[in-house]
From TrEMBL:
It is an enzyme of class 3 (hydrolase). The gene is pnbA. This is Carboxylic ester hydrolase. SUPFAM superfamilies: alpha/beta-Hydrolases (SSF53474). The lineage of its organism: Bacteria, Pseudomonadati, Planctomycetota, Planctomycetia, Isosphaerales. GO terms for molecular function: cholinesterase activity. Residues 29-492 form the Carboxylesterase type B domain.
Length: 518
């Protein structure tokens, strides 16, 4: 006996309420792989946590590019974060990771203020930092509720770190899997955003990638990667860039090795864990792989990363979008502790910077113990972060069709009176400033409001400016100005310009040597 027409219409009406094509009824949304059910984050924001975007990279899928996700039946609960990437427990605690650690980590999270799919809000995709060796989307500092309240859909994407994300080995190259698995995860996450974010009220034609430290470096790398072409429309990098020449040995201020160097490191690493080949290494428990120490970083593999990023930018061959990039004033304080003497600094400079050591020593005064400590911190800041963002802004201004906006974050906190330390700006961007340096003072809330508006305006239009905001001019070669974010916002000359120019000469010399010798 067939059901009555009335009963059938009632069922369709119920289904329409659950999977409203024009809304987010009952905190549900339909993705390409199935329906997810989130929850209310309060303040008009819905949150969907722990949405898988690729098959778990475990067992035979360890050290393979992310595989397409299989569909699931019914409704998948999306109310808690997925596992965080496998990493050292001590590192996870340092980053405030709130979930268990597992290789099964390819999950993302969505915060949306949209009332329906028709809202078509700008989308901001967060990529966490952690030196490519640690990190998690579950860190409380990255909660997207307050940022989403400003009228954007916030997405945070997990990616593999450490040996699981960045091992290179000749066998992997022969398999066709390559390396840079962590970057490939980020790209897979961006594909998910392109294909699914409309279901959450987001606009897939207005996607901004933003990240800090290794996340900001990732944004820089994606901006040059042909694999990421067309997957985002704007880019924000907080303390991150990758414009130095390849690292062949122990060159100062260089981090990205070419494939042959990374493969050789991978061969030695497998030997150190007692694995005769990749198959044997895939059979080892994750904790066994983490016992051996190694420095893991993305690789110029000729696929995800074609090579020295400076060169395609000089040729105008990059993913040309508006960019907003910058650095904090005292980045090095987190990494360089007391105990630096002038003699030790001089020896380090001469070992790292070759024939440019003397010009760099002149650029960083170091005669007294206090000056030596400041010089060590400042060369770290500039060689790892500031030179890259300044160079990126210059190249975008010279070679791109879209504008570049450069900032310098110098907000002083009670625990950091000498300047803004590494990562200090994150809470201000997310609207969670009190989570980084308690207590949250009135001036902190004011700056967070200012920065949140700049970042969201940029995500919406490619321009940070808006009503009742101090005017932020685009960086140009004719007017190389920077927005200094402190108690307020003020346009100034680029700080530390003489030292940056000395570093620029050093990197040019290294680049010429790399061309000649390799």
């Amino acid at each position: 006996m067939f059901p009555s027409l009335a009963w059938s219409l009632a069922c369709l009406a119920c289904l329409g309420k659950t999977l409203d094509p024009d809304g987010l009824a009952e905190n549900r949304a339909r993705t390409a792989a199935g329906v997810v059910e989130g929850t209310s984050a309060g303040q008009g924001v819905r949150v969907f946590k722990g949405i898988p975007f690729a098959e778990p990279p475990v067992g035979p899928l360890r050290w393979k590019a992310p595989r397409p996700l299989k569909a699931w039946p019914g409704v998948r609960k999306a109310r808690i974060f997925g596992p965080s990437p496998q990493q050292a427990t001590s590192m996870a605690l340092m980053m405030g990771v709130m979930t268990r650690l597992d290789e099964d980590c390819l999950y993302l999270n969505v915060w949306t203020p949209a009332k329906s799919q028709a809202d078509r809000l700008p989308v901001m995709v967060w990529i966490y930092g952690g030196a490519f060796s640690m990190g998690s989307t579950a860190t409380p500092l990255y909660d997207g509720t307050n940022l989403a309240k400003r009228g954007v859909v916030v997405v945070s994407v997990a990616y593999r770190v450490g040996v699981f994300g960045f091992l290179a080995h000749p066998e992997l190259t022969r398999e066709g899997e390559g390396t840079n698995f962590g970057l490939r995860d980020q790209i897979a996450g961006l594909r998910w955003v392109r294909d699914n974010i409309a279901a959450f009220g987001g606009d897939p034609s207005r996607v901004t990638i933003f990240g800090e430290s290794a996340g900001g470096i990732s944004v820089s790398m994606l901006s040059a990667s042909p694999r990421a072409r067309g997957l985002f429309d704007r880019a924000i990098s907080q303390s991150g860039g990758s414009f130095a020449p390849p690292k062949f040995a122990d060159e100062g201020g260089q981090h990205v090795p070419p494939l042959r160097v990374a493969e050789a490191q991978g061969v030695k690493y497998l030997q150190s864990v007692g694995a005769k080949d990749i198959a044997a290494a895939r059979d080892l428990p994750a904790k066994e792989l983490m016992k051996a120490s190694a420095f893991w970083w993305p690789t110029f593999d000729g696929d995800v990363l074609l090579g020295d990023q400076h060169e395609p930018y000089r040729q105008g061959k990059f993913n040309d979008t508006p960019i907003l990039v910058g650095t904090n004033s005292d980045e090095g304080a987190l990494f360089i502790r007391d105990g630096i003497t002038a003699d030790r600094l001089v020896a380090q400079f001469r070992g790292a910077f070759g024939q440019h050591a003397e010009s760099l020593l002149k650029a960083y005064p170091h005669g007294t113990p206090a000056e030596a400590l400041s010089a060590a911190r400042n060369i770290f800041r500039d060689s790892v972060f500031a030179w890259h963002t300044w160079t990126w802004a210059r190249l975008q201004a010279e070679k791109g069709r879209n504008p570049a906006y450069l900032y310098y974050f110098d907000h002083r906190m009670p625990l950091s009176p000498g300047g803004a330390t590494h990562g200090a700006e994150i809470g201000f961007v997310f609207g969670n400033p009190g989570l980084f340096h308690a207590p949250n003072r009135p001036e902190d809330a004011k700056l967070s409001e200012l920065m949140g508006r700049y970042w969201v305006n940029f995500a919406a239009t490619g321009n940070p400016n808006g009503a009742e905001l101090p005017e932020w001019p685009a960086y140009t070669t004719a007017s190389p100005r920077v927005m200094v974010l402190s108690a307020g916002a003020e346009v100034k000359d680029v700080p530390n310009l003489g030292a940056l120019k000395a570093l620029d000469a050093y990197y040019s010399w290294r680049r010429e040597r790399a061309r000649a010798e390799n």
